[in-house]
Amino acid sequence: MSPAIAPSARQARLILIGTALLLTLGMGIRQSFGLFLEPVTRDLAVTAADFTLALAVQNIVWGLSQALVGAIADRFGLRITMMAGAAIYIVGLGIMALAQGALALIVSGGLIGIALSCTATSLAMTACVRAVSAKQRSKMLGIVSAAGSLGTLVVPLATQSLLAREPWQIGILFFLLMAIAMLPAAFWAGGADKLPAQGTAATSMREVLGQAVRNRPFLVMSGAYFVCGLNLIFLTTHLPAYLALCGQDPMLSAEALAVIGGMSAVGSLVTGWLGGRYPKHIILGLLYILRAIMFAIYFMLPPTPASTLLFAAAMGMLWWPGLVPLIGGLVAEIFGTRYMATLLGLSFVVHQIGSSLGAFGGGLILDLSGSYDVAWKIGTLIGFAAGVVQIVAGGPTRRDDPRMVPAVAT
Length: 410
Fold this sequence. Notes:
This protein is mainly alpha-helical. The protein is built from 17 helices and 2 strands. The protein has a single domain, classed as Growth Hormone, Chain: A, CATH 1.20.1250.20. Helix 7 packs antiparallel against helix 15. The C terminus is likely disordered.
């Protein structure tokens, strides 16, 4: 392996542009799958539970494969891993476009889950932190996440506009074009392979994993991440169906998802700034508590266009990209960047178990009860509890303080 060198301004710029594009395209697609629930179930004669099972498979495969994909990227390089993921995304979307039943949707979901492991936040965060100094890390993670949020603003609106006039398969072909554009973005982001990485005193992946499973702040953060996945994927998957049940215009759900995407860019900038100045575990906990409060207020009242868009704006400020500077910053502070992709993948397994439960559980509750009342009550209660635990137990003790673990270049 050639020796690592510090990045030039051009190298750093290409890496950051590549990671932002990967997040914009990949997460914009992923954020919009809920818009297909009604047309796909109607056209293919499958149930809501069948469709959401495919999304649950997507999320659980994403989670279960993330740690392995992170280890592969740490071992063989980010560039080859990210480009392979973009190719798998293309295949998965192609299968969905040709689907004739639930089985093809599930297969597609599994492939897209693997693709997201290779192209989404865990590897993107790893590339980003290698391109900037530790002092600028939280701020730059916020900026890249904010840029990545643009896809969740634009893609839902464009997709719903297509679905209003064309068969749902045309919407998937639109996704395919975006997935093809992810290939050059992955190549640019993969330039981080040439840059130096820092690690803890651990000299092997096995040692750093051993540290992780004994580190209380890391374990608490990962547990709260479970609730994050459950609540957010429940919302993106089931908000269109919930609004349809309440007699609202289908375009309202796309507008709400777009508002979430747009405001999440602002939220990412804010949390990136806050994370560089205040304890990250406290900011995380407050985000979870505020989300629970927003859930409770919105679902207790009859939805209207105004209340839905206000709710979307508030949730956007508290959305997943806003966690990126905090989660990535915490992991880098505790363990360094050498095995960051693996460690982020480990915590993301827990997040995606929650995501799968949020997608499938919401569909199952809808099929059994005909409403979402039980689902939103569960989400509110555990979201509030997760925030409290994150604040109370997620901070470093003297034993867990990252300053007590020397970082060494590798």
